[in-house]
Structure formats: structure tokens, C-alpha cells
Specification:
Layout lengths: L1 H41 L7 H18 L3 H7 L4 H10 L18 H10 L7 H12 L2 H6 L2 H13 L4 E4 L15 E5 L2 E12 L6 E7 L9 E7 L5 E3 L13 E12 L3 E2 L5 H37 L1 E2 L2 E2 L4 H29 L5 H26 L9 H8 L10 H12 L4 H4 L1
Parallel strand pairs: 1-4
Antiparallel strand pairs: 2-3, 3-7, 4-5, 5-8, 6-7, 9-10
Helix pairs in contact: 2-5, 5-9, 6-9, 9-10, 9-11, 10-11, 11-12, 11-13
């Protein structure tokens, strides 16, 4: 009887604890939707001006004249001339739209950077836009916000002007989406930091002049033990692998980088020691918004190409496009793209208002990764055998856009972040 009573008491305790957790989740979810609704009604709208349109037209003209005519050649070569392209963009002021004016930037708000990111989707491959995005929205935001004037003069200004190519050193062989698990170290020695370890999947890796590097500077709590640095890539002790052979993004050079007792001055530290993880999470929000914005036009281009092809391709005596299942499906995809654009714009509006965009940026990043796969897969199907040929845009985007669900945090990481904001992430996995 005592055993039965104890079991019953234990069961009641489990039920109470379970109900308590459930209640907390319900409250958190209600707060989540309430906050989301307030954001939608108060601050989440963008107004584009003639100045925004001039930025878009400037970018569109450069893409049409100086990038797209060469994309096929760069795709075959497995690399594009980053210094040449970036210098052209730098002369037009496009690499520092929302960066400080005292270091060569335009000093505009984030909405202008968003317009540029979206227009990059007009490039007929994914590799070149990604490389540009590293320069503008992945390797430089923390430096612009937290770097000393000396660092910003030495590294940020020439990056904005297009004279230096940047890369981002976060991912490692055993630490992709799990940033806290990186093992590269930067240990103080006299007036220097001595760096050992390595980085993997480094975009711009074989051409970069400097790296925004995340490394462990202590052995403490993983979120407080990391720091960001500006690392010149010609420093003694750095070895860069040959270009990695990738499924897609073929015109973008990607490398593995090794550090063997690499010495840099302590003045190359970005911001405060131990704040690197926080700084990198801030950079990730901008990167994730950039990814979502930069794929919008490429998805629209695939849909339009499919309409053209399906309208001219005869199947059983009538155009393929005349089949309801085809034109309805293309209408669904176009609607999904436009819905994503609204989400991206809403997140960007919060970013302009200096609000926390972590939730909406994660949602946009999750959605674009999945939608990009859906669009390219559906459209490739309607191209039939031609969709399987490398000469078609849809086959290239099928390969390139797959990365959107992996890079800058995998879909599963985005889902965990969203669940955390909703209060539905189990406590055992929340850390």
C-alpha cells in the first residue's frame, strides 16, 4: 500500500510538473503572438524613396554590364575575379551603404542595404552574390559596429572601397551550425595573440586579404570564451587549401584555412575580449536577412523562365503551360515568393527601427531555404530533360539555392530559435 501511495504521489508530481511546463509554454506562445502582432501594427513597414530606386538601378546596371555577361565563364573556372568586381562595386558606393561615412560608407539605414541585397538576386548564379554578401553583411558588420577606429581604418575602409576582399572564419570541420563548439584558439603572448586551429568552408578563402575570425580566448563558459579578430591572410603561419569542389555556388571560391602559431597584434581584437560569440550572433541576424533577400529575385527569374519555356513547349498537342496543374502550381510559387518578400521587408523594418530581429530573421531564413528548394525543384520538373542540363538557369539554381538551408545556420537551428521564442523548446535542449 505504501508503495502504491508513493507511486501515485510521484505520478501526481509528474502531472503537475508537466502541466506547469505546458502552462509556461502556452503563456510564452501567447506573448509571442501578442508581441508579433504589436510589431506588425507599429513598426514593421518600409517606405522606399527615389533614393532607394537609384541604389537599385545602379546595382542593376552594374550586374547587367559587368557581372552577368561573365557568369558562365566564371562558373566553368570555379572562381570569379573578386578584387576586380568588388572594386567596381566600391566605386559605386555599394559595398558600404549602411556603414559609417568616416570610413568610406554612405551612412544610410539598413533598408538601402536590403535593396542592394535583393537586387543581387538578378545575378544569374548564386556564387557571386554570396561572395559579395560576405563582404557587406557577414564579415564586416561587427567590425563596423564594435571595431576601434584604427581597425576600421585599416580593414573596413578598404573593404568598403573594394580594395580588400574579406572572408569570414567561423565554421570548422566539426563545428558548422554549432558555433559554440569551435576549437580554434587565440592565446595572449606578450603583445600578441597566437592563433592555432583552422576554418572550413571559407567563402572568398583563396582570394581574401583578411578574415573576420572567431576564436576561443579562454576556457570558460562557451558563450563568453570567444572573441572576434581582424586577421590578415598573408600572415606567417596561415595555409590556405586549394579551392574546394562543391555541388553548387561554383563561381565562388571556397577553401579550408589552417593556422599554425599565427601571430597578430592584440590591437586586432574587435571590440571586447570574450564578446565574440555575441558579436557573431549579431552578424548572423544580418547574414540571415541577407540570404532571404538575395534569393527573392532568383526565384522569380526561375518562375518566369519556366513560364516562357512551358508556354512554348508542346505536349500532347497543346502548350505545357495550358495544363491547369502547371499554371496553378506556378501561381502558388509566385504567391509564396511574394509572401516571403513581405516577411523579409517586415524584418528589415524592425532592423531599421533597431528592434530585435532574431525571430523574424530566423523565420525568413527558414522559409527561403525551403521555398528555394521547392521553386527550383518544381520548375526543373516542368523543363523535363532540359532541366537536367547544365546550360539552363533552373539547373544552376537547383544546385546553388540548396545552400540556403545549410549556410548561416541550418533549418533545424532556425526551428530551434523560433521554438525558443515561442516557449516550446524543451528545457533539456534549450542550451
Amino acid at each position: 500500500l505504501r508503495a502504491m501511495a508513493a507511486a501515485a504521489a510521484f505520478s501526481r508530481g509528474l502531472c503537475i510538473n508537466s502541466m506547469s511546463r505546458s502552462s509556461r509554454s502556452i503563456v510564452a506562445t501567447r506573448r509571442f503572438f501578442a508581441a508579433s502582432s504589436r510589431a506588425a501594427s507599429q513598426k514593421a513597414s518600409l517606405e522606399f524613396s527615389d533614393e532607394h530606386e537609384r541604389v537599385r538601378q545602379t546595382a542593376a546596371r552594374f550586374i547587367k554590364e559587368s557581372i552577368n555577361p561573365h557568369v558562365d565563364e566564371w562558373e566553368k573556372a570555379g572562381i570569379f575575379p573578386a578584387h576586380q568586381v568588388f572594386k567596381g562595386l566600391g566605386k559605386l558606393g555599394l559595398l558600404g551603404l549602411n556603414k559609417p561615412t568616416q570610413f568610406g560608407g554612405q551612412g544610410l539605414d539598413y533598408s538601402f542595404a536590403l535593396v542592394f541585397a535583393e537586387e543581387l538576386g538578378a545575378i544569374t548564379c548564386g556564387g557571386v552574390p554570396m561572395a559579395i554578401g560576405v563582404q557587406t553583411d557577414m564579415a564586416t558588420p561587427a567590425l563596423a559596429l564594435h571595431g576601434s577606429d584604427m581597425l576600421r581604418k585599416e580593414f573596413l575602409q578598404p573593404s568598403i572601397e573594394g580594395d580588400r576582399v574579406a572572408c569570414l572564419g567561423v565554421s570548422e570541420v566539426h563545428a558548422g551550425s554549432d558555433v559554440a563548439a569551435i576549437k580554434t584558439t587565440a592565446v595572449k603572448d606578450k603583445g600578441d595573440y597566437v592563433i592555432n586551429g583552422g576554418k572550413m568552408w571559407t567563402t572568398n578563402g583563396t582570394q581574401a586579404d583578411w578574415m573576420c575570425l572567431l576564436a576561443n580566448t579562454s576556457q570558460g563558459q562557451v558563450h563568453r570564451s570567444k572573441s572576434l579578430f581582424c586577421l590578415p591572410m598573408k600572415t606567417k603561419g596561415i595555409t590556405v587549401s586549394p579551392r574546394l569542389d562543391k555541388l553548387g555556388m561554383r563561381s565562388s571560391d571556397t577553401a579550408q584555412v589552417f593556422f599554425d602559431n599565427v601571430r597578430i597584434p592584440q590591437s586586432y581584437l574587435i571590440g571586447q575580449e570574450g564578446k565574440g560569440f555575441v558579436y557573431q550572433m549579431q552578424q548572423f541576424q544580418e547574414e540571415r536577412l541577407w540570404v532571404a533577400a538575395s534569393v527573392l529575385k532568383s526565384m522569380e527569374a526561375i518562375i518566369h523562365k519556366t513560364i516562357e519555356y512551358a508556354g512554348g513547349r508542346k505536349l500532347f498537342g497543346k502548350p505545357l503551360l495550358a495544363n491547369q496543374v502547371v499554371h496553378f502550381r506556378l501561381a502558388e510559387l509566385a504567391t509564396e515568393v511574394e509572401s516571403l518578400r513581405s516577411l523579409v521587408y517586415r524584418a528589415a523594418a524592425l532592423r531599421v527601427a533597431k528592434e530585435d530581429v532574431t525571430l523574424l530573421a530566423s523565420m525568413a531564413k527558414l522559409k527561403v531555404g525551403r521555398l528555394a528548394r521547392e521553386v527550383s525543384d518544381s520548375c526543373l520538373q516542368y523543363f523535363g530533360g532540359m532541366g537536367f542540363m547544365n546550360e539552363t538557369l533552373v539547373s544552376r539554381m537547383y544546385r546553388d539555392n540548396r545552400l540556403a538551408s545549410i549556410g548561416a545556420g541550418a533549418d533545424e537551428v532556425m526551428l530551434s530559435i523560433i521554438c525558443k521564442y515561442m516557449g516550446t523548446l524543451p528545457a533539456t535542449t534549450e542550451a
